[in-house]
Amino acid sequence: MIKVAMIEDDVDVSRFHRLFLNKIDGFELIFDTHTLEDGLKKLKQHQPDLLLLDVYIGTTNGLDLLKKIRAEGIDLDVILITSANDAKTVQTGHRFGVVDYLIKPFSFKRFQKALNRYRLNKLDKSEVFSQQEVDRLFHKGGQNKVYTLPKGITKETAFRIMQCLIEIDDWLTATELAEKCSISHVSLRKYLRFFEEEKLIETQLIYQVLGRPLQKYKATIDAPLFLEAGFI
C-alpha cells in the first residue's frame, strides 16, 4: 500500500481529492492538513511515500515547502496539484523533482493516471540497477505514459491494430484497416474511438463525387510510443 499525504488549504477541494483517492486501489491517505507548518511536522512524523501538494496555501507557497523537503533530504515523492500554470511555477516544480503536475480543475481520469503512473514507476529501494536498466528508467519515452483501457478494449488487440497503422503509415478507411488487422468492423470502431481520444491517430474526411464521404485514419508521429507505454 502506498502511503499518501495531502496539503490543501481549501476544505472542499480537499474532500474531492480524498474521494478521488479512495476510488484508486493501492493508495492510503494517512493524513491531510491545511497549512505548510503542520504539513512539515506530519511529513516527518508519518513518513509518507507520496505528497499531494497545493501551491497557493493561504499567504504561503507550497513551493517553499517543496524546496525545504529537498534541502532536508526528506525521502518522499511529490505531485503538485494547483491552479498555478505559469512557466516559473511549472519550471520550479520540475527542477525540484515533482513526479507529476495537475492543473486545477482536472478530471478523475487525469488524477487516476497520475497516481497509476506513479505506482508503475515507483522504485523498490532495495533494488540494484545495471546501466541498461538505468538508461531505460531515464530515457523511457512512451513508458512515461500510462493508458487506462476502457471496458471492451484489450491491450493485445490495441497493439495489433496500432502495429498495422504504424507499418502501413498511410491513410486507411475502417474497412481497409479491419481487413488488414483481421478484426470485425464493429470491434475496430471501439479501438479507433479510443485512439482518437488519446490523439494516437489522425482522421480526414474524403469527399467523393457519388456516395457518402469516406473517413480515413493514419497513425500520428507519437503512435509508436503507445507500444512502449504502461497499461492499467
TrEMBL record:
Transmembrane stretches, start-end: none
Modified residue annotations for 4-aspartylphosphate: D54
Q: What are this entry's molecular-function GO terms? A: DNA binding; DNA-binding transcription factor activity; phosphorelay response regulator activity
Pfam family membership, one: Response_reg
Q: Which domain of life is it from?
A: Bacteria
GO (cellular component) term, any one: cytoplasm
Which InterPro entries is this protein grouped with?
Answer: 2C-system_Tx_regulators (IPR051271), CheY-like_superfamily (IPR011006), Sig_transdc_resp-reg_cit/mal (IPR024187), Sig_transdc_resp-reg_receiver (IPR001789), WH_DNA-bd_sf (IPR036390)
Where in or outside the cell it occurs: the entry states: Cytoplasm
Output this protein's name: Response regulator
From what organism does this protein derive? Oceanobacillus profundus
